[in-house]
Every structure is written in structure tokens, then in C-alpha cells.
Write a structure and sequence with these properties.
Layout: H1 9-19, H2 28-34, E1 36-39, E2 42-44, H3 47-50, H4 54-67, H5 72-78, H6 120-130, H7 139-165, H8 177-182, H9 192-201, H10 217-226, H11 232-240, H12 245-252, H13 260-271, H14 275-285, H15 301-304, E3 313-322, E4 325-331, E5 333-334, E6 337-338, H16 340-343
Antiparallel strand pairs: 1-2, 3-4, 5-6
Helix pairs in contact: 11-13
Length: 352
């Protein structure tokens, strides 16, 4: 047999034989010594009881039981000859013998099971192991019981492991069940309905594939380029802000990382795109956010999310487990402006 799911030719042949009701049997050498027994009332001696001094003793035990002439105490003494010294010579159980099964099946009560001595127990037990279904031995049924047990174990373990693993599933990744269900969207805003409406009206102004650099002027410029929203007015504004054509091309082609000065120049260009020039850019972005005054407002969360910005938060991961689990969310805006906890130093690592 194999636990790996792979079978050798020998394993296949063995399994096939067992399923065809051949292969399992009581060892013939052992049977020749211990004999055979199919019930408590019958026993065919093996050489251990037929060809040794145990023959007469075992026959006497059987006769004592069947004729009923001995009282219980005397009978128990008969089946315990030598039990304290050399039990094998009295065909009796050893002093170390213990019984953990059902009390009614304890072989060494005064029952017919004891009437052929201790050696007979091996033969009867061997028969019962292969004859558990109460008829002729059917080995494939014997195997099916193991297969059914294995199938039940495999099926149950899958469910058990699923429940067990759910206890610490992605532990430390999500701070609470809301984050887990929403793929961390609730870590941005708990006002999911209003936040979602603001996202819809923003159109294509936010590129989720580059969300890691969201808020940088160069990120918005690349988004505008993706949707062919760079108008002549914006190009002129970029050049007027001090950007060269090659610098703009390198940024859009991701050839180089924009410097702080270039980010400022791009932002300055956005600031002067207003009115119709702004509308000309918002149309290809399908951006319908109201209240925008300049292109730079697409970098201002208060302008970009006019209805949900008070619910926006910033996460801070906890160094050790706390009441907020893996991270604590702090509101970005409070009292109509940026939270003092963000601007100040009360939140470690933010605004520093």
C-alpha cells in the first residue's frame, strides 16, 4: 500500500487480490500451533495442545466446564494453574494479562470461552478479526470499512481545517472583518456608498494601477496621457512652467523618475488650467465631479471627493497587537480641515 497516492506493481496486485476476496488469511504456521476456533463452543487443537502435556490439561478443563461438576472457585483454580509462576505450562493467562474490552467479553470470566484454556483465545481472536461481519470472511468488505473511514476522515478534515485555518486567516493583513470583506476599501472610507458615488463621478481621473503614487502631479499627468486628455493648453502650460519637451517625454515614457522640482512645475501648470481649458480635459476623463476650479483640484481629495472626504482615513500599522488589530485608522480631515493628528506628531510616522 502507499500513502503517497502512487502504487508499485506489487501494491496494485496486492490491492486487486484483496478486492477479489483473496489474500487476507490467518497465518498457516501460526494456525498449525494454535489450532482453529470459530466460536466459544468449538476448538480444533493445534500442535501446542495436541502434541504436548497441555493436551490432557486442556481436555480436563473442557470436560470440567461441560459436565458442570465443579464449583466456580474450583473451576477458576483449574484455569489458573501456574498463572503465578509458569502460566504456559498450565495453559492459563499470565499475571500481566489485562482486559480493556466490554466486560461481558472478558475471556477469563467463568464462561465457555475459558473452557479450552488460554491458547485457544489466539485462534478464536484470529477468526473473529476476519469474520467480523458474522458470516464467511469477505475481505473486500473488510477493506471497504477502511476505505469508508479514510473517505470520512479526508472529507471531515477538509472542513475542520477550513474552520481551523479561518481563525488566523491572513492574520495581520486586515484590521477587521470590514476590511477583509471589502478588500480594504473600508480602510479608505467607511462611507462606502457616498465614497463610491464620488469615485463614479470622478470618471477616469484615478488610475488604480498606479494607486501607489496617487496624488503626485506626475501620476495625474500620466493618467491624462493614457486617455488622450493632454490638450494644447496643458502642453503650453507645462512648457511655460519650465518643463522641457524632453523632460515631459521622459516622464510620460517612464524613462526617468520626476524630481521634486519637476513635480512642482507640473503642479504649477495644472493650477493655470481653468474654465474651458479644464472642461476640455475633464470630458475625455468622463469626470463629472462638481466644484472643480482648476486641473490641480484633481489632486485635492477635498475637491475630488466632495461628499465623502470627511470619512477618508490613513492607516498606521501597529507594532504589536492591540484593540484595533493590525492597524489603526486615523481620519485625514477633522473640523473642516486636515486633522491636527496628521499634521502634528501624535500619530507616529505621519506628518513627520
Amino acid at each position: 500500500m502507499s500513502n503517497s497516492g502512487k502504487q508499485s506493481p506489487l501494491g496494485v496486485n496486492t490491492l486487486g487480490s484483496l478486492l477479489q476476496n483473496t489474500g487476507f488469511r490467518i497465518n498457516s504456521v501460526a494456525a498449525s500451533y494454535m489450532g482453529s476456533s470459530t466460536s466459544a463452543s468449538n476448538y480444533t487443537f493445534g500442535t501446542l495442545c495436541s502434541s504436548t502435556c497441555l493436551n490432557v490439561l486442556t481436555t480436563s478443563i473442557r470436560r470440567a466446564f461441560t459436565d458442570g461438576s465443579l464449583d466456580t472457585t474450583t473451576y477458576n483454580n483449574l484455569i489458573s494453574i501456574g498463572s503465578g509462576s509458569i502460566p504456559a505450562l498450565g495453559n492459563s493467562k499470565a499475571p500481566t494479562y489485562t482486559w480493556t474490552g466490554a466486560p461481558t467479553w472478558n475471556p477469563y470470566l467463568t464462561t465457555e470461552i475459558t473452557s479450552y484454556g488460554y491458547a485457544r483465545l489466539f485462534a478464536l481472536q484470529a477468526y473473529n478479526e476476519f469474520n467480523y461481519n458474522g458470516s464467511l470472511p469477505v475481505y473486500k468488505d473488510f477493506l471497504m470499512s477502511f476505505m469508508a473511514s479514510s473517505g470520512f476522515i479526508d472529507q471531515s478534515n477538509s472542513a475542520i481545517l477550513t474552520v481551523f485555518n479561518s481563525i488566523d486567516f491572513v492574520a495581520g493583513t486586515y484590521s477587521n472583518m470590514n476590511d477583509l470583506i471589502s478588500a480594504d476599501i473600508t480602510g479608505v472610507s467607511l462611507s462606502t456608498t457616498v465614497f463610491g458615488q464620488d469615485l463614479v463621478t470622478s470618471g477616469k481621473a484615478i488610475d488604480l494601477s498606479t494607486i501607489a503614487t496617487f496624488g503626485l502631479p506626475s501620476n495625474l499627468l500620466s493618467t491624462l496621457n493614457t486617455y488622450n486628455a493632454i490638450t494644447p493648453s496643458l502642453s503650453l502650460a507645462l512648457l511655460s512652467s519650465g518643463m522641457s519637451v524632453s523632460e515631459i517625454s521622459d516622464i510620460l515614457g517612464k524613462v526617468s523618475t520626476p524630481s521634486t522640482l519637476q513635480q512642482r512645475n507640473i503642479y504649477g501648470a495644472f493650477m493655470i488650467i481653468v474654465g474651458q481649458d479644464l472642461t476640455d480635459i475633464l470630458i475625455p476623463l468622463n469626470c463629472k465631479t462638481s466644484g472643480l476650479e482648476s486641473l490641480a483640484d484633481l489632486l485635492n481629495p477635498q475637491k475630488l471627493f466632495p461628499n465623502s472626504y470627511p470619512s477618508l482615513t490613513v492607516p498606521v500599522y501597529n507594532a504589536s497587537a492591540g484593540p484595533t488589530n493590525s492597524k489603526t485608522y486615523y481620519p485625514i480631515y477633522e473640523g473642516g480641515g486636515v486633522s491636527s493628528r496628521i499634521v502634528g506628531s501624535s500619530v507616529t510616522g505621519i506628518g513627520q
